[in-house]
Amino acid sequence: MLQKRFLSVDYGQKRVGIAVSDPLNIIARGVGTLLNDQSFFEKFSSLIAEFDPQAIILGMPYMLSGDIGERAKEVMDFSNVLKEKFNLPIILWDERYTSKMAVEIMIISGTKKKNRAKKGNVDRISAAILLQDYLDSIASESVSRR
Predict the structure, then answer these.
(1) Sign of the CA dihedral 31, 33, 39, 41?
(2) Considering only 37-46, 51-60, 120-129, which range has the smallest mean pLDDT?
(3) CATH tag, 6-145
(4) How many C-beta neighbours within 10 Å does residue 85 have?
(5) Per-residue pLDDT tens digits for 86-129
(6) What is the dihedral of CA 104, 67, 94, 15, to 10 degrees?
(7) Contact 36, 14 (CB under 8 A)
(8) HSE toward the beta carbon, residue 123, CA cutoff 13 A
(9) In what order do the strands lie in the sheet with 90-94?
(10) 3-class secondary-structure state, position 35
């Protein structure tokens, strides 16, 4: 049965990685990166209109200790703006290690070094990893309820 998709956001001060789930909410795929500038919300609105998500999964940069640092406070402020502008549920999801995992995935997949150095690629893949982690968690939760 088709469901509404999820859209994930890997927030950064310069760029924002974006990923979306498939209509069955099984697989995440990176759809791109947006510059975090004055045009961000206009471009993000287009993605919201295109994918019509049921919620936004927003990467939360917890510290290694699990505490909330300055970057996490910035993400929480961004979360409030997203809620206000798009009236969608925002799910804060632990994004620790997603950038490192993204680089490792690019190395394993044979991505050339110059493409691995492009931060937009890391942000897009990080958003997909973040979303896939969320999708896997709701799938395992669904299975354990049976």
Answers:
(1) positive
(2) 120-129
(3) 3.30.420.140
(4) 12
(5) 999 999 998 876 777 776 776 777 767 676 566 767 788 889 99
(6) -70
(7) yes
(8) 20
(9) 28-35, 15-21, 6-10, 55-60, 90-94
(10) strand
Where are the chain's structural domains?
Answer: 6-145
Residue pointed to by tokens 């099984």: 26
Which range is most confident: 63-72, 75-84, 93-102, 108-117?
A: 75-84
Tokens in use for 72? 């996490």
Rounded CA gap, 79 and 59, in Å?
10
Looking at the chain, list the stretches that DSSP marks H as alpha helix, in order from N- to C-terminal side.
Answer: 40-51, 70-86, 98-108, 113-116, 119-145
